[in-house]
Specification:
It is a single chain. This protein is mostly helical. The chain has a single domain (7-170), classed as Tetratricopeptide repeat domain (Serine Threonine Protein Phosphatase 5, Tetratricopeptide repeat, Alpha Horseshoe), CATH 1.25.40.10. The chain is built from 8 helices and no strands. The longest helix has 18 residues, at 64-81. The protein is globular, with a radius of gyration of 15 Å.
Length: 173
């Protein structure tokens, strides 16, 4: 799995302009809604922003509901356009499994159901791409309940969100 983050988004992250980076990638994705890399990058960036919205490095309040709706919109498009794409399944499966709350928008949405769907997506990705080291690392994280991490090198680009996923996939035991 390789994510190619836009250099503008990386620069915004480097300047601690997290909201602007998420907005930028969302707008880029809206221009080409069926672009797989756009879905992966915008989804990962918005998920990261939501996860860390109350940390000092964000340094501003965000409209959490807006970004949750955007994440759901991106996810629904990904589900329609890439239902059997291993990169989409692995990344969004990871996002759903680790933080299912960010995918719950409506009363009645079941957090456990979303979390289980994420695990199923990662399992399907590993069947579709058994030799992909990043997908294998994500799957191992779930199997070992985050106690063991892959030591395989991830080939993702720069930026803080990429660094997050590199750390998750490459952490030492």
């Amino acid at each position: 799995m390789v994510l190619h983050f836009d250099p503008v988004a990386i620069e915004l992250e480097n300047r601690n302009q997290w909201i602007e980076a998420a907005d930028y990638l969302y707008e880029q994705w809206k221009r080409e809604p069926q672009d797989k890399n756009g879905i992966l990058c915008a989804g990962a960036e918005i998920w990261y922003l939501i996860c860390y919205w109350d940390h000092p490095f964000i340094n501003r309040e965000i409209d959490l509901g807006l970004y949750m709706r955007r994440l759901k919109e991106i996810t629904e498009t990904g589900d329609q356009c890439f239902p059997h794409d291993p990169d989409y399944l692995a990344l969004f499966g990871y996002l759903m499994h680790v933080q299912p709350f960010w995918f719950v928008l409506e009363r009645g949405d079941d957090v456990d159901e979303i979390q289980n769907r994420g695990l199923e997506m990662v399992e399907e990705a590993s069947v579709l791409a058994p030799d992909d080291p990043d997908i294998s690392a994500i799957r191992m994280n779930f199997q070992d309940h985050y106690e063991r991490r892959s030591k395989q090198l991830c080939q993702w680009g720069g930026g803080a969100v990429n660094d997050y996923f590199k750390a998750v996939l490459n952490a030492e035991e």
